[in-house]
Amino acid sequence: MWKSKMVFAMLCLMFLCGGCESAELEQRGFPLAVGIDLQETAKKEEVEKMLVVSFDFPDLAQISEKGKTMDTPMGMSLEGSNLYHVEKSYENNTNRLLDFNHIKAMVLGESLISDKKSLRNLLLNLEQEENAARNITLFVAGSSAAEILSLTEETEGSMGTYLEEMLESQKDFRQKKIATVGSLMNQWHNQNELLLLPVLSEKGNRPAVSGYAVISNFDYVGIITVEEAMQIFLCQNLIETFLCELNQEEAAEISNIRVSVSVADDRDDPTVLVSVAGQGKLKAGQANSMGQEYQIEQRMEKRLMTNLQETAQKLQQEYGIDITNSYVSLGGYNRKLYQKYKNQPDAYNRSVRHLFEVDIDILNWE
Fold this sequence. Notes:
The protein has 12 helices and 14 strands. By secondary structure, it is an alpha/beta fold. An 8-stranded mixed beta sheet has the order 4-3-2-6-7-8-9-10. The chain has a 4-stranded mixed beta sheet with strand order 11-12-13-14, covered by helices on one side. Helix 8 crosses helix 9. The two termini are 47 Å apart.
């Protein structure tokens, strides 16, 4: 039923457009997901860089009788020096127009996000594309974007729908956490913040999040683990629940999370204080007495504080990033430091010190 409703909505949209005719739907291709890789080809003394764009189209033949006239394959890949040339190639190969209005997800190859010039050109193309929405969800391919979009055997045919439902099923995150095309465009224009993009890898013939690609001030710096990314989201107050492992046998889920951040000027160096509060519930292990529970509470606070401190130090040393993303709001935190580090986010991220406070109340004991 939901598939029929989706197609009906698409038809209504086309009918409402001024000057549109009913036949126009059959003259357009509506990809639900797009994968974009960067391919380099050596030509004499120079290297030519081409976009390889893979498309995931809905199977209209399974939805409506009219859709059976569609002869465009559900998946296809085209090459071009930019997105405009790829669109023209699609038109020439299918005799149809590309319509980006219904794209749910865009998967970028690591070779593309690590090439700043090519990534910037792609974003410029997308800005000029009238029907490309800024709220398209962004992913990074652990192998290649084309390989991810080809994993349709176990995803009921539609990769775009599968990726959308996969994100909707994640209940740990607060709203507006998902990285989008608009988020990356803001990075490009402002170049002053931290952005994490989920990395997809194949697992059981399905795409699964295996890590997070880090883009800091529009520079791709590498891929971090899911655990490290969750700690970054925690520090930025972007998640509602957090799993804290105390040891191999004990783990606790922290809910009702409240995070506050302040930036102090310590001898002209920025110091970020992150205070984390919440309620903990044992997911593995058990507290049998009030005294034992108090000990677990203390261990949980110490473990989380240590983990956050170690992660902040590691990622700052290896990638030069501030896991709290405090620079983007520095003007509101501390005007003196803002004036000192104005237009110098990299220098700020390398200089900032991190302090953490954790206050967790255990809920298991009765």
